Amino acid sequence: MECFLSLRSQQNNKNMKKTIFLLFVLLTTFIISNAQNSDRKWAIGLGPGADFNLDHEEKNSMIDFYVSHYLSPSFDIMLEPRLSFYGDNYFSNKVIGDNESYFGDGVDIFNPLLNLRYKFSNGYIFKENSFIQPYLIGGVGYMWYWQESGFNFDLGAGVKVPITPNTSLFVATSYVKGIETGSGSDTHSEDHIQLTGIIEFALGKAKDSDGDGVPDKKDECPDTPAGVSVDKKGCPLDRDGDGVPDYKDDCPDEPGSPAFNGCPDRDGDGIPDYKDDCPDVPGLLKFNGCPDTDEDGVPDPKDKCPDTPKGCPVDENGCPLDSDGDGVIDCEDRCPTEAGSADNEGCPDWQTLHIPNVYFDFDKSTLRPEGKEELDKLAGQLLGSKEYVVEVGGHTDNIGTEAYNMKLSEKRAQTVVKYLLTKGVNNAYVSSENYGEDKPAVKNDSRKNRQLNRRVEFEVVKVRK
Question: What is the DSSP string of 321-388?
Fold first, then answer.
């Protein structure tokens, strides 16, 4: 009978192992979720382990299953029922014999624990996304050991290793303080060392505030507008890398400036290239970005005379006006409506009039009748001109002192000027000069010659009849 029970126990044990292994494979195959974090606060873990009974010096197989809840970056709380089941060992065959546990043939220990897991990868000690993430674990539980039960506790340590963005492996070792079994000299302290390897899966859906498919935990741009394409960090795409996301970029394939909605301004004139008719030369807004170098109001691309002096009136081609067609532009032409020469600033050439000298009596500055006649002729010619310059030069003979003669020549020149003014000649164009005896017309060696030196000479230039 004992042999039959042993065989039946072995068969049941094998069946249970197969069932548990199958459940484990199914769970790890079909459950796909992200690792537990502040967004996914609930998780389940399942995996195999080894249970070393320190009192009986035996090794059992075990299954560890838990449900955990995220409390903070540093702590998780876990409800963790652990199952250990015996195989063909001394304890099950000789010590227990035909007795069955609370949970039927083949189950050695059932030990639900309420544990607290402290995570070193909390952002303070190590980064939360570290490849190796160590932790400590400890808590209290209640152990059922065959026909006996009681409270116990455990302490342990382990590491978490992210396998993929969807799964994590937890490997841990823990000391499990068991319960006292038996009585008298047959009392045992059922303490254990347990090694487990757990695959953990988070439950629920990660928070994604902007609905871009990147959970807030990993989203560096959590306020992206709906419908905007994002990269793996959750930020709007920026194809040209200019800092302006594509959905705001009027020129998404060409680096530009945020000031121009992502469009470039190569010449830096404040007008984006797509609005700039001269994108490589700084220009003016009123000319669609083109310059007006000579500031004549005609932009350079349309200006056939780009070097026009500033302030000159121009035609529609940007060329200076030349109203009289004399080749001298109006702004430099003193006679813009009358053809002239460049040598005379656009005015008709000057003409020199040769007027006979006006002679005076000895030591006199009074005009003679014949002198007045000559001056009347000169005045008539000047009044018929639009512009003129008259220079009146007074002279004397050599009789008398030099100072006296200089004064006398000045009086003679002034007499002529005053007479011309009385005839309507403009004094703005008449000047006088006195030379005394310094510039004689002939030698002062005779009475006749000295008479010729008592004179006023004229130099008259006139323009524009």
Answer: P-TT-SSS-GGG-SSTTS--BGGGTTBPPPEEE----EE--TT--PPPHHHHHHHHHHHHHHHTSSEE
